TrEMBL record:
<keyword id="KW-0325">Glycoprotein</keyword>
<keyword id="KW-0732">Signal</keyword>
<protein>
    <recommendedName>
        <fullName>Sulfatase N-terminal domain-containing protein</fullName>
    </recommendedName>
</protein>
<comment type="similarity">
    <text>Belongs to the sulfatase family.</text>
</comment>
<dbReference type="InterPro" id="IPR024607">
    <property type="entry name" value="Sulfatase_CS"/>
</dbReference>
<dbReference type="InterPro" id="IPR000917">
    <property type="entry name" value="Sulfatase_N"/>
</dbReference>
<keyword id="KW-0106">Calcium</keyword>
<dbReference type="InterPro" id="IPR017850">
    <property type="entry name" value="Alkaline_phosphatase_core_sf"/>
</dbReference>
<dbReference type="Pfam" id="PF00884">
    <property type="entry name" value="Sulfatase"/>
</dbReference>
<feature type="signal peptide">
    <location>
        <begin position="1"/>
        <end position="23"/>
    </location>
</feature>
<feature type="region of interest" description="Disordered">
    <location>
        <begin position="466"/>
        <end position="494"/>
    </location>
</feature>
<keyword id="KW-0479">Metal-binding</keyword>
<feature type="domain" description="Sulfatase N-terminal">
    <location>
        <begin position="29"/>
        <end position="262"/>
    </location>
</feature>
<keyword id="KW-0378">Hydrolase</keyword>
<dbReference type="InterPro" id="IPR047115">
    <property type="entry name" value="ARSB"/>
</dbReference>
Length: 494
């Protein structure tokens, strides 16, 4: 998603939502946040795909297309940044993902976006994929700010059986859901979203975080949706197209339910992608041209996507698009502007608050963000205006070798390295600088031509490193599987 649209949305919503202490219920918008997992840049109709996405396209045509929206390349760090407003290096979740049995999660001392919205009077609901830890109940959604939760704790599971690694993983709040074997997850999630919209008490504003399992693997979709794409010869790609198709249908059903409930005139809706690169197990699955790279690296292809942002005010202005850049944790900063009396500063909120006061969004601070992960999934890089700088030398400091991490930080042995996961292998350099507007393929390294700019990037990363936390990773706990066996489902065990 692009920055200018986010900024435009902030100003639009700032007119609707004043300080939480004095805002009337009518002034607070209902918020529908739709997250699509693993969708490729080129896999939506408004980017020319043969996969039809009419409902997402409709949101795009009525709102603003954010064409330079950046995410982390893998699940856990992205979701942590979204809900905390902090970069992964400031949550300890920068190294890999949380696996079933890992005894850690999003730090409990971090106040989340739904917790802040609850303080502002919102009814908060989550549907779909959590993937921020469930080693104890305090780490699960209904203890992290959501009034209700309907979904699964882990990172991926069978779309029909809802089983992950031999055990069921599907919850209605804290209760295990055992009667949906054979029901495709998107259908179950969309149905619950429609029920929430229909039954919502309009005396309170509504926040719904709809975190689809689609189009994350395993690659599965109902036959009637796959058959629409019989012209696609590759069976994996064809099934993937069906996954996109049914996701788009669900987006239409959910937005229609919001309209029928009378929310459309005061609705802030966002449809965004989690990450865009190809999964190693399904390399032919999604398309991210012209961006380069594969999941889980921090190449441009894998961290930049186009998302859709619309409000009642924005939608009336017709379709528009922007290339201005922003990182996903800016959404909590957006809330920080609207409910300034409630929100502690995150990594971007200080910049956004300052920029909002000046009503200027073209400064370095407003256009600069850190995109980082650990050495196993891409080295730190930082964006500023049209440039992106990759700093492998800093990556060695932020995330030393896997062996050293395991010795010093109790990091599990589940570590992959870029040369091993990419085919063909990609040579690593210490520093690289790209103009990502003129060179989206990132072919031309400008670091030697602009050493002063590289130094500026290095200084900024150094400032972020001063507050970096060590990776929170811990070895898997055997007790988790024992408790899962006793319950027939993955369950908090500590």
């Amino acid at each position: 998603m692009s920055i200018f649209v986010i900024v435009f949305g902030i100003f639009s919503l700032a007119n609707l939502c004043i300080n939480a202490g004095t805002a009337s219920l009518q002034s607070q918008p209902n918020i529908l946040f739709v997250l699509v997992d693993d969708l490729g840049w080129s896999d939506v109709s408004f980017h020319g795909s043969k996969i039809k996405t009419p409902h997402v396209d409709k949101l795009a045509s009525e709102g603003v297309i954010l064409n330079s929206y950046y995410v982390q390349p893998i699940c856990t760090p992205t979701r942590a940044a979204l809900l905390s407003g902090r970069y992964p290096i400031h949550t300890g979740l920068q190294h890999g993902i949380i696996h079933n049995g890992d005894p850690y999660g999003l730090p409990l001392n971090i106040t989340t976006l739904p917790q802040k919205l609850k303080k502002a009077g919102y009814s908060t609901h989550m549907i779909g994929k959590w993937h921020l830890g469930f080693y104890n109940w305090d780490s699960t959604p209904t203890y992290r700010g959501f009034d209700t939760f309907y979904g699964f704790y882990s990172g991926a599971e069978d779309h029909y059986t809802h089983v992950q690694d031999h055990y069921l993983d599907l919850r209605d709040d804290e209760e295990i859901v055992r009667d949906l074997n054979g029901t495709y997850s998107v259908n179950a999630f969309a149905k619950r979203a429609q029920q929430i919209a229909k039954s919502h008490n309009s005396s309170k504003p509504l926040f719904l975080y709809m975190a689809f399992q689609n189009v994350h693997g395993p690659v599965q979709a109902p036959k009637e949706h796959v058959d629409k794409y019989a012209f696609i010869k590759d069976p994996v790609r064809r099934t993937y197209a069906g996954m996109v198709d049914i996701m788009d249908e669900a987006v239409g059903n959910i937005t229609d339910a919001f309209k029928e409930a009378g929310f459309v005139s005061n609705l802030f809706s966002l449809c965004r992608c989690l990450r865009t690169g190809q999964n190693r197990s399904t390399r032919r699955k999604n398309l991210s041209r012209p961006k380069q790279g594969r999941k889980p690296t921090t190449s441009l292809r894998n961290i930049r996507f186009s998302s859709v942002f619309a409000t009642g005010d924005v939608s009336r202005g017709g379709p528009s698009a922007t290339q201005r850049q922003k990182f996903l944790c800016c959404w909590l900063a957006c809330e920080n502007i609207r409910f300034s009396s409630l929100f502690a500063a995150g990594d971007v909120s200080r910049r956004w608050t300052s920029a909002t006061q000046r009503r200027k969004f073209h400064t370095d601070d407003a256009n600069q963000f850190l995109q980082n992960n650990s050495g196993s999934h891409g080295f730190p890089n930082i964006n500023l205006s049209n440039f992106r700088c990759l700093l492998v030398d800093f990556g060695k400091v932020l995330c030393p070798s896997a062996k050293k991490l395991q010795q010093n930080s109790n990091v599990s042995s589940r570590v992959d390295y870029i040369p091993q996961i990419l085919t063909p292998p990609v040579p690593l350099v210490d520093v690289a600088l790209y103009n990502i507007t003129a060179d989206p393929y990132e072919k031309y390294d400008l670091s030697k031509k602009f050493p002063d700019m590289v130094k500026k990037f290095q200084d900024r990363v150094q400032s972020y490193m001063s507050g970096a936390l060590p990776p929170a990773n811990k070895p898997g706990d055997p007790k988790a599987r024992q408790v899962a066996k006793e319950n027939g489902a993955w369950t908090p065990w500590m």
